[in-house]
Amino acid sequence: MLGKLAQRFANLAFGGNCYLCRGAAAGVLCAECDADLPRLAAAACPRCALATRDGALCGRCLAQPPAYDETVAALAYAFPADVLVQALKFRGELALAPLLGGLLASRLPRGARVDFILPVPLSAARLRERGFNQALEIARHVAAATGCALAPQLAERSRDTPPQVELPLVERTRNVRGAFRCTRALPGAEVALLDDVMTTGATLDELAATLKRAGAARVVNWVVARTPPPADA
Ligand SMILES: [Zn+2]
Ligand SMILES: [Zn+2]
């Protein structure tokens, strides 16, 4: 699944040992750990990727359609996918980006095309503090795998917002309202929003709405990991 270059990079970074179990591995993960990654249910809402019977639209997307049209998620946000995502984001283990990007790219429908891939932007303050945008690092590999244009400058944070993870689920929508600004008109464009984790989808919904106001015809979410349905939904 990993490209040769990514594999060589991983071997340099991890010495040919599986990142999770330290066993011998040709890539970042050994075959066993790769096979054990938490997958999502095959039948899921096409719009938000939560499990539904027969893959029908879920009740929430029917009642309150989000601004995005579709969600593809590579994994469920559960152990050990959460370990990998957090190691990239909080410990700066950038060598995990090709693994996560490769997992996501392999989950996309064959020949998936968009005009632009937009990694969800961080605020300037968060970017300074972290030094990199994990969504952009993952997006580089998805762009290379799909041949779609990587366009991190398409939108920016217009204001700083408290991290979603620190807020109760019900406050997350309000927290991100007006958080993004599109930097150009996007008449008829198809855009994929790329992020590491999708939880309530409030951030992606707000960003998709911003792009559609700028003229985008279709906005899809490409995310590495999807959390299970919120307990209070
Ligand atoms: Zn392993
Ligand atoms: Zn749904």
Percent of residues in helices comes to 25-40%
Annotation field: number of helices: 9
Order of helices and strands: HHHEHHEHHEHEEHE
Return Rg in Å: 17 Å
What value does the average pLDDT take?
A: 90
**Structural class by secondary-structure content:** alpha/beta
Overall geometry: globular
Distance between the termini: 35 Å
- Strand order of the biggest β-sheet: 1-6-5-2
Bound molecules: zinc ion
Beta-strand segment tally: 6
Low-confidence stretches: none
- Portion of residues in beta strands equals 15-25%
For the sheet with most strands, the description reads: 4 strands, parallel
How is this structure best described in words?
The chain is globular. Helix content is 34%, strand content 15%. Helix 5 (97-107) crosses helix 7. The chain has 233 residues and is an alpha/beta fold. The strands form two sheets. It has a four-stranded parallel beta sheet with strand order 1-6-5-2. Strands 3-4 form a two-stranded antiparallel ribbon. The mean pLDDT is 90. It starts with a helix and ends in a 7-residue tail after the last strand. Bound molecules: zinc ion (2 copies). Residues 18, 20-21, 23, 29-30, 32-33 line the site of one zinc ion.
Topology:
Elements: H1 4-14, H2 31-35, H3 59-63, E1 70-76, H4 81-91, H5 97-107, E2 116-119, H6 124-130, H7 134-146, E3 155-157, H8 172-176, E4 180-182, E5 190-198, H9 202-213, E6 218-226
Parallel strand pairs: 1-6, 2-5, 5-6
Antiparallel strand pairs: 3-4
Helix pairs in contact: 5-7
